[in-house]
User: What shape does this take?
Amino acid sequence: MTGVHNHVNFPEELAIGPLLPRETYSTCDFGDKQQLVFGAEAQREGIETYGIAGRVWEAAYLVTSYIDNPCTWEFDPPLIDKHLSGHKRIFLELGSGTGIVAAKIAQAAALSGRDLVIATDLPEVCPLLEKNLLVTPKGDSGNTQVTLVRPLSWGSYDHAINIVRELKLVDDPSGHEHGCITHIICSDLVYFPELLAPLLCTLLHLTSPPSVSLFESQPRVIISYKIRSLSKETPFWSAFGLWFSFEPVIARKIDANNSSSEWERFGSDIGGDDDLAFIFVARRRPESLNWTIPLENVDLLGGVGARGTCGKKSDETFETLLLMGLGE
Assistant: This one.
């Protein structure tokens, strides 16, 4: 969860402390060195220097469990499509903050020897990511490097396209040498009203040509989300659903006898009624690639340009999911 330096990252009367895995739902498991990087003392120092970007948030622990894919759980849909198992996977995370989610992805991606994780945040937060992820500074992106850090301010087309051009994240007819973005990860980013439109704008930038190839499937957008204020957050989902189709991840537990429980929304047992959490998996609606993305934030959140028309409109997917009981 990140925002504008000295504004959203440092809201008035900021009074937050570290959040550890035992305080929330998680199977997060790191080595001793990374435990120190993301532990209580490291978070306290991070909060002092980087504000809310220096804290690990609830939905981050939820999505690390999804990434871990423990043998005691079965997910639908899974993080990785089976048909992508032989392809290079490129994960780009928005608002990486401390880097705990990017670190977990890199831990899994390193096993393949070909995947790449790109952690992004505001330029002033990138030093925290570089420190925590122990990556090579910009300019030295060798083939063996698993994780990179790059600045990406939400709403900045230049930041998004610079990453695409630098790393050549477009279709290569000669053999797909560089590959395309396959996953866009968002963890606890939907909250501050003034950042909802810029966040959606960046998601549209990263799922529109030239960021994506017309010859490859659209990236999966993974959004780990904890409800904090529906009145503030619903406008994002009402606009997001116009451009993206999305569904919650469901899961079931598997015991030692290989017996499985009933399917339930993953995150449904994170806490009480005041702790509703989701992981959504989304893809860009193919027809939306022909729509004009409005320049004004108020128009984007109002649905202008969606469905190819200039009128205001909204999508009801999120509200329908809540009414169906998937939020219980």
The first strand starts at residue 73 and ends at 76. Residues 30 and 104 are 8 Å apart (CA to CA). Residues 193-206 form the longest helix (14 residues).
